[in-house]
Fold this sequence. Notes:
A: mainly beta, 6-stranded mixed beta sheet, 51% strand, B: 7-stranded mixed beta sheet, 50% strand
Amino acid sequence: AQSVAQPEDQVNVAEGNPLTVKCTYSVSGNPYLFWYVQYPNRGLQFLLKYITGDNLVKGSYGFEAEFNKSQTSFHLKKPSALVSDSALYFCAVRDQAGTALIFGKGTTLSVSS
Amino acid sequence: EPEVTQTPSHQVTQMGQEVILRCVPISNHLYFYWYRQILGQKVEFLVSFYNNEISEKSEIFDDQFSVERPDGSNFTLKIRSTKLEDSAMYFCASRRDSLYEQYFGPGTRLTVT
Lengths: 113, 113
């Protein structure tokens, strides 16, 4: 069965420092991978996706993610964190049998000034 | 930028009552979804809908649940007889035919007392 793991409940980083939010996946076949962000009292906002092609994917708000097939990882990164990046981040994989998204449990990113 | 909208933002109901959650997907999208997020837990897939019929559903989506697209714009989730464990945030999402990412609404918080 497909699954997504986000090993960290919370990531703390100082403003201006690089950030990484980790995600590993387990699928059979080629994965379709996504990152979403959720701000308080808001829905999930799409950040970026990996379907095929370049392993480094660029997305919204300066975020990028690196697909690593050998490590089955899809970590979210940003070179310089902003306080406004503080939110809940979800990694997701598309179900191989259909189009539903399977989400990780989420990682809370806290950026301090 | 077009958005998925959901009403109401918060619904309180008594156990055993029927509730209908409403969504207006992005207008040129063809695939529609419902997910739920119980407080402190993962976002879970409930059902997907395409071409006026259910295309996928999870084991959560039992006979108490139904979905409908009553007109060209609305997409509804009905829970026939609510249980305490139905208390959750319910998210609607939609997807265009040729793209893979789903766009989520802000959610409806359902509280069953």
